[in-house]
Amino acid sequence: MMKYEAVTIKDIAKALGISTSTVSRALRDSYEISPETKALVLECAEKLNYKPNPAALSLKERRTRSIGVIVCEIANNFFSQTIDGIESIAYDKGYNIIITQSHESFDREVAILNFLASRSVDGLLVSVSTETNDISHFKELHDRGLPIVFFDRVVDEINTHKVTLDNFKGTYEATEHLIQNGCKRIAAIVNSEFLLITHERLAGYKEALANNGMEVDNSLIKHCFYGGIEAQEVEEAVNQLLTLRPRPDAILCTSDKLTTGCMSALSRRRIKIPDEIALIGFTNSNVSELMQTPLSVIKQPANEMGRQAAELLLQIVESKRPIKDFEKRVLTPEIIIRESSVKI
Question: Hey, what's the signal peptide range on this chain (predicted)?
Fold first, then answer.
């Protein structure tokens, strides 16, 4: 198989029998080149399917017109929808995006960051991995002037734009809904302690219990470090909850994989949802309403989060002077009540 080689200005020059400098100036619309020659060069460039080399252009413009995106997992419904939002804004503004996934690994996140920085991307959109407790790799690049915007899983220590969810509101309202439906022992299956979203979501759950005169029982809170990417950890969390006496009569899950994983684990054990255990959780999956027991969800405005994060990043990238004032945008979740959380 022949090695692919892109068409260059040398190929155009050879086809027309003129110098490469003439072709280059014609493509730049230089006043030194006659309109007739420009027309010939453009016609030949189109015929040969010539595309300017982005690396060469970036040396001139000091920009690659590409942005890097780091998420934990593209297969996650929430992240695939945020990427759609990012892409729609980037595409409209003439930017390409390089999508990468950390698979919740700190080491992989650092390696990806080094790779993207070496590709001279114009900026980064980041949702940090579950293992990320040390953010010096981001701080170092940010301090050197690389624009970074965090979304969903943000970090407080870096002063930049952030787009996140009102996580407290989401779990507060979901927990209150379960209490109003007669649930007395509400368990929570949550993400890693390292993540800010975990603290915010747990805080909403605990506050709703307290405001309804119910005590927080720590044996009802189960952390899944990898957020359900490893199915076994959700199985173990559900098993531990089912051994408690009295058993929980409801479970709140704080992420997409935890929610769908928990529902599967309960179904495999023939536990009737919601009669024996009610269930509600974060998920943006389109199939949640089509499940055997339609699933109550805390739905995030994922596409909008991606769009806003991309807009804020490109504002920094395209600004003529350094941006000093940064904002944290907090979007509102939507609670959708279906059969899985309504006790009959």
Answer: none
Side chain identity at residue 75, one-letter code = A
Alpha helix (H) ranges present in the chain?
A: 9-16, 20-27, 35-47, 54-61, 77-92, 106-118, 136-143, 167-180, 196-211, 231-243, 256-268, 302-318
Q: Is 17 left (phi over 0), alpha (psi -120 to 50) or beta?
A: left
Cα distance between the two ends of the chain? 66
Task: Judge contact between 84 and 303, C-beta under 8 A.
Answer: yes
Contact 162, 154 (CB under 8 A): yes
Clarify whether residues 160 and 183 are in a common domain. no
Question: Domain containing 254 — which CATH number?
Answer: 3.40.50.2300
**Of 20, 12, 22, 4, the residue nearest 49 (C-alpha):** 12
> CA angle, corner 243, sides to 238 and 248, nearest 5?
70
- Whole-prediction pTM: 0.79
Interval 267-298: pLDDT, tens: 999 999 999 999 999 988 876 666 778 899 99
For residue 286, give every residue at least 6 positions away whose Cβ sits within 8 Å of its Cβ, in sequence order, or none: 77
HSE (CB half, 13 Å, CA atoms) of 319? 16
Whether 3 maps to a domain, the answer reads: no
In a domain, 57, yes or no: no
Q: Would 2 be classed as within a structural domain?
A: no
CA pair distance 48, 51, nearest whole angstrom: 9
What tens digit of pLDDT does each residue of 52-88 get?
A: 765 454 444 456 789 999 999 998 889 999 999 999 9
